[in-house]
Amino acid sequence: MPQALAGDPADPPEKDPYWVDALAQGLAVLHAFDDTHPSLTATEIAARLGWGRSKPYRFVHTLERLGYLARDNTGRSYRLTTRAMHLGFTYLIRQPLVELAQPILDQLRQAVGASTHLAVLENDELVFLALSRTTLPTGINIHVGSRMPAYASSIGRVLLAYLPEDARERVLGDQPLPAMTPKSTVDPREFRSKLEAARRAGYIFNDEEYHLGIRSIAAPVFDAEGQVVAGINATALTTVFSEERGRADVIPAVMQAAADLSAGLGHLPPRQALPAALRGA
Questions:
Q1: Paired residues of 125 in beta bridges
Q2: What pLDDT, in 10s, does the model give residues 82-130?
Q3: Burial class, 236, CB count within 10 angstroms (exposed 0-12 / middle 13-18 / buried 19+)
Q4: Could you tell me the residue range of the domain that residue 28 belongs to?
Q5: Rounded distance, CA 31 to CA 126, Å?
Q6: Do both 102 and 241 map to the same domain?
Q7: What is the DSSP letter of 163?
Q8: Which of 34, 97, 217, 278 has its CA 20 to 30 A from that of 256?
Q9: Helix axes 42-49, 21-31, angle to 10 degrees
């Protein structure tokens, strides 16, 4: 049986008199659908949410009548409709971050010949908000709204690097990290050292740790208050991003793209010290 979803939105907070259980459970049904489960029967929804077999039927029926779910050709399975998608895009179109990022992502893609992405941290997961795509292996299916563990990708790692220590420790814990590839960093101490290095350098270089044959470089995006609010990366095959090209060309391009987006959000980087010849004026 599939494991129940973690962080179920239907889990009620303790002693909350304003909590509407039916609404939370209806939203949990929508959350049961994801990249790997685009179509589900009511029984499969129950299994993913850890519910009894009959519990989802009233929620599924209501969501179907409201237009958020539709049956597939078999008549047994359901899928999300564009009406459900509208909920997410209403959020996106109100985000100045996304509007500002898209032309920067497009320019970065053209400059380095790689797929580029914008993502944020939400509930300890990485959520992708915008992208500009080139050809990547079919095993990498990232689109707007995709989620993944924060430790897995270059953007997630650079965002973890800038989190306050208590928030970062809550995400990482003290157990070995799950390996995505044979090259993944799984030792918590080594992983933290890489995050510290990323914070000092202002970028992270992910060398085949998320997907074999793929390298990715990410940098943080700052808002007007100097807080890291997102990350940008460029992702390509190792044949496109050699280590030499990555360090010579791609890292500066990604860092500049992140700086351009930060400037668009009102971030002013610290002033550099004046050259000695100009001091004392």
A1: 122, 149
A2: 788 767 665 555 568 888 999 999 999 999 999 999 999 987 889 999 9
A3: buried
A4: 21-87
A5: 16
A6: yes
A7: S
A8: 278
A9: 110
